[in-house]
Amino acid sequence: MEPVIHQVWWRVTQRLRRTSLLPRRSHSGCAEHISVPASTRSRHIRPTPLVSRIYQPSHLRDVGQDSRVQGEMTCKSQRLMQQAGLIHSSNPGCYYYLPATVRSMEKLVRVIDQEMQGIGGQKLDMPSLCSADLWKVSERWELMGKELFRLKDRHGIDYCLGPTHEEAVTTLVAHQTTLSYRQLPLLLYQITRKFRDEPKPKFGLLRGREFYMKDMYSFDVSEEEAYKTYESVCQAYTRLFTRLGLRCVQVQADTGNIGGKLSHEFQLPADIGEDQLLVCGNCSFSANVETMSSDRTDCPQCKTGTLVESKGIEVGHTFYLGKKYSRAFKAVFTNAQNNPSIAEMGCYGLGVTRILAAAIEVMSTEEGIRWPGLLAPYQVCVLPPKKGSKMDKAAALAEDLVHTLEKALPQLRGEVVLDDRTQMTIGKRLKDASILGYPYVIVVGQGALEETPRFEVTCQEIGEKMFLSKDGLIDLLRKVETV
Ligand SMILES: [Zn+2]
Question: Burial code of 65-92, b = ≥16 C-beta within 10 A, e = fewer?
């Protein structure tokens, strides 16, 4: 290299190293990231998840006392999730989501992504910090009242922490001055944290002040097309809940402060549900009591059925908005006649953390969590025998089994945990496994040492216990769906 060029190169690299854009040199002259000892490189191969290493501190705090302090009402899902170390309460309506919960949430997000992208949804991410000016245009700055978390920046400018993003997304689309009818329908969605200053946060993740929501917004050329989009989103929601194994009813609902002309709620029937529903025993009709006079008992759809009251947890909501926001924010596209035209909009929410908690609420027993199969943080838990017991020799077989299962069934990679807490009896660990609700629990005990090894497997959903060979296990677990 020419001396002058070398000098320049030297100065540039030194500056980049100082600003951490390049790795610093160690004394041996090698860049530090290359001098990592070979032994730690094997960390890139995923190790078997060990129960002793999963950060899931059970009984972090006495649940009863905890909720008294914060004046929160508890329910089954909150109690079980706290007992199992899945969530930890921080301040009213706010929770730590511990690693197993995040695994489950990520699975739910993947299922939602599949369904939303299946109908043409495109994922984006909008700021949580929303300018008050936008909310004043829609007049919701006043309308939302105390529910909106408001704050000022250092210049004294007002913001809110977004509970929903009609204003933000419509402004974004309005900024695209070249939007053509050929690009519609446009379906934009995000899965982000939302904020709502609930007067009484309660029921754990069911009614928090900070939560995850999927919110999708649609832009269409006409009312007719917008109704088609609306229908396709409702169908996607129904498919989603079917895949999760959750019974969900789609009910007519009030449009509330979102506005618009047509609205449906997706409700999971549950005793602790806060919504009162009227469900026809004869046809598919169901409605939120808010939309009807509550003393009505005859079905307006089939005329013959009787309406029965039921309680539900709202997990999804759809709104046909018309031009309410697109007119206010000038979300305009060029129509087939080359004229500017205002888009027809819809918005569609899914409470992501709420779906998770509601699923646990409706599926679990009083003693243990039961997950929708797709959402279980881990699908299989393998229990080796207690250390020092006469079956101790089977311990190596348990580890072998984990590797065999992962090799034979690629969809279970990273989904099989080994409960290595072998200082505990099998009984005690089985009880823990039942609380945490792994869909399949395999005990490697006496049977595994026989000439033809047998494993005791419990399918927790149906509570059935079976003794299977290794091949039998593989056959059974082949059916397990993961996402
Ligand atoms: Zn009916």
Answer: ebbeeeebebbbbbbbbbbbbbbbbeee
CATH code of the domain occupying 378-477: 3.40.50.800
Name the helix (H) or strand (E) containing 1. none
Quote the tokens at residue 394: 């089977």
How far is ligand 1, taken at its centre, from the CA of residue 24, in Å? 72
| pTM score, whole prediction | 0.87
Interatomic CA distance for residues 406 and 396, integer angstroms: 16
* Annotated domain spans of the chain: 1-33, 63-363, 378-477
In a 13 Å sphere around the CA of 201, the CA atoms on its Cβ side amount to 23
Reported as a single tens digit per residue, the pLDDT across 37-63 is: 445 444 456 788 999 999 987 654 444
145: left (phi over 0), alpha (psi -120 to 50) or beta: left
Distance 209 CA to ligand 1 centre (A): 37
Paired residues of 345 in beta bridges: 219, 322
Other CB atoms within 10 A of residue 342 CB = 17
CA of 475 to the centre of ligand 1 (A): 44
CB-based contact 159:150 (threshold 8 Å): yes
Ligand 1 centre distance from Cα of residue 310 (Å): 15
CATH top-level class for 63-363?
alpha beta
CB 434 within 8 A of CB 368: yes
CA 204/CA 74 separation, integer angstroms: 7
- Read off the pLDDT of residues 184-221 as tens digits, 9 standing for 90 and up: 999 999 999 999 999 989 899 999 999 999 999 999 99
Angle at 430 between CA 428 and CA 434, to 5 degrees: 120
On the 0-12 / 13-18 / 19+ scale of CB atoms within 10 A, 17 is middle
The closest alpha carbon to 168, from 314, 347, 333, 340, belongs to 347
Q: Model confidence over 79-107: pLDDT tens digits?
A: 999 989 999 989 999 999 999 999 999 99
Please give the Cα distance from 318 to 252 (Å, whole number): 10
Provide the CA 298 distance to its chain's centre, in angstroms: 37
Neighbouring C-beta atoms of residue 424, cutoff 10 Å:
17
Q: 293 CA distance to ligand 1 centroid (A)?
A: 16
**Partners of 418 in beta bridges:** 50, 382
